[in-house]
Amino acid sequence: MTEILDYDDVLESFDPAIGLEVHVELSTASKMFCGCSTTFGAEPNSQTCPVCLGLPGSLPVVNAKAVESAIRIGLALNCQIAPWGRFARKNYFYPDMTKNFQTSQYDEPIAHDGWVDLEVEGEMFRIEVERAHMEEDAGKLTHVGTSGRIHGAEYSLLDYNRAGTPLIEIVTRPILGTGAKAPQVAKAYVSHLRDLMRALKVSDVRMEHGSLRCDANISLAHKGAQELGIRTETKNVNSLRSVERAITFEMRRQGALLLDGGRVKQETRHFDEATGTTRSGRSKEEAQDYRYFAEPDLVPIAPSAEWIEELRATLPEQPVARRKRLATEWDADELAMRDIVAVGAMDMIEETVAAGAPPQAARKWWVGELARRANEGGVELEELPITPRDVAEVCALVVSGELNDKLARQVFEGVLAGEGSAREVVDARGLAIVSDDGALKEAVDKAIAANPDVAARIRDGKHQAIGALIGQVMKAMRGQADAGRVRELVLEELG
C-alpha cells in the first residue's frame, strides 16, 4: 500500500511546484496531415489512409485550418506568434503511433511566451505559458482483460482512427507560490482553457472523449530550498475533478516518501479514477531521448503579420470578462459566481437562461441539485444526461405553479433516469400540483378533524399553528398540494 502524508503536513515541510501540459484536440473536419475524417465514434480503423498509417512513400500536407486554430489559441493565451517555424520528428516507439515517430514541433513552436491570470478563492495567480505547439495525436489502444490495463491483459486492440488528429499542446512554465491551493489552481487553469477553447470554437473539449487531456507535473521542494524537487508527470488526466485529485494525491505520496528519507523517481504515472491514486508508468524521457530532427517532408510555417492581425480580430470574449458580464446580467454576487465556477456550471446556466429560465432559478438547480448529483456520480456536470432545455422546462413548470421545488426534484430524477422530457416525467409519474378545490377541501377537512387542538389554536388567532395542518395535507397528497391554496382553505374553514 502506498504511504501518504496528511495534506497539512505536506505543506508544513514542502513547497509544491506544478506544471501542466494540456493537449487540445482540434475540431477540424480532417486530420493534421491528410484528408481523413476526424468524426468521433466511427468504426475502428475506418478513417485511415497511407499518410496517417505511415506507409512508405506517403507524403503529408499541413491542415491550414489547424494552423489557423493554433494561431488563434496562441493569441488568446497572450502568446507571441512565431513568424517562421518548422515541424520536427519526435522519435519513440508506441504501438499506437504507426510511423514510430510523432510529427510535432520542438524548438520552433507556433506560439510562445504567453500568460493567463486566474482568480482562485479570492487570490490572483499568473500562469506563464511557455509554448503552444502543433502536433498529431496517436491512435487508441484497448487492453482486453479483467483490469482494462496492459498488465494482465489477454490482448490489445489498435484503433488508428484518432492517429493524425490535430493537437495543440499548451505547456506552462513551473507554477510556484500556490501553496495549499496548488490542486485548485491546476483545476482552475484547465477549466479556463476548456472555457477558452470552447469560446474560440476550435475544439469540443469533451474530456470524457479525450479531446482535452492534461498531463500534470508535480514536485516538492523542502521549505527554503533554492532548487525545485524531482517531478513526476501524471498522464492523460481526463476530468477537472481528477486534475485536482491527482495533484493532491501526488503531493501526499511524495511528501511521505521524502520525509521517510526516500527519493522521488522522475517518471510518468497514471491516475486511477476509482481509487483516486496514481501508479507508476515508465521512466520520464528527456528531450534528447526523442532524437528530434526537422521534418523533411513538410515546408516551414510562416504566417504573415497581416494574417495574424486578422485572426486577432476574430478572438471572442475572454472567460474572465464573460464571467463579469454574466454576473451583472444574472445579478449574482462574487460568492455566487465563485460557486458557479467551482462546479463548472457557467455554460449550462447560460444556455438554460437562453432557453427561457429565470437566472436565479437556473443557478439554483445547476449549482445545487444537479451539482450534487454529478458529485455523487463522480462525473462532470455537463456529463449528466440532462440538457439546459430540460432544466428550463422544469423552471417554467415551477413558475407556472404546476410544480413546487419538492416535485421538481422528482422530475429531475426522472429525466436523469432516462424517463423522457420534464413534461413526460410529470405526466407519467403524476407529479403535477393538485389545485382542485374539491380534492384540497376534502384533505383539509380530514386534517382539521384529526387535529382538533391545532384547529382550536388557529380559531383563537394563533395562525402560526397553521403550518402543522398544511404539513398534514401535503403529506396526505404526497407533496402535490398547492400550499398557498391549502392555507387559504384552512383559514376559510376555521373562520
Automatic annotation (TrEMBL):
It is an enzyme of class 6 (ligase). Its EC number is 6.3.5.-. GO terms for biological process: glutaminyl-tRNAGln biosynthesis via transamidation; translation. It catalyses: L-aspartyl-tRNA(Asn) + L-glutamine + ATP + H2O = L-asparaginyl-tRNA(Asn) + L-glutamate + ADP + phosphate + 2 H(+); L-glutamyl-tRNA(Gln) + L-glutamine + ATP + H2O = L-glutaminyl-tRNA(Gln) + L-glutamate + ADP + phosphate + H(+). Keywords: ATP-binding, Ligase, Nucleotide-binding, Protein biosynthesis, Transferase. Pfam families: GatB_N, GatB_Yqey. Allows the formation of correctly charged Asn-tRNA(Asn) or Gln-tRNA(Gln) through the transamidation of misacylated Asp-tRNA(Asn) or Glu-tRNA(Gln) in organisms which lack either or both of asparaginyl-tRNA or glutaminyl-tRNA synthetases. The reaction takes place in the presence of glutamine and ATP through an activated phospho-Asp-tRNA(Asn) or phospho-Glu-tRNA(Gln). Belongs to the GatB/GatE family. GatB subfamily. NCBIfam families: gatB, PRK05477.1-2, PRK05477.1-3, PRK05477.1-4. This is Aspartyl/glutamyl-tRNA(Asn/Gln) amidotransferase subunit B.
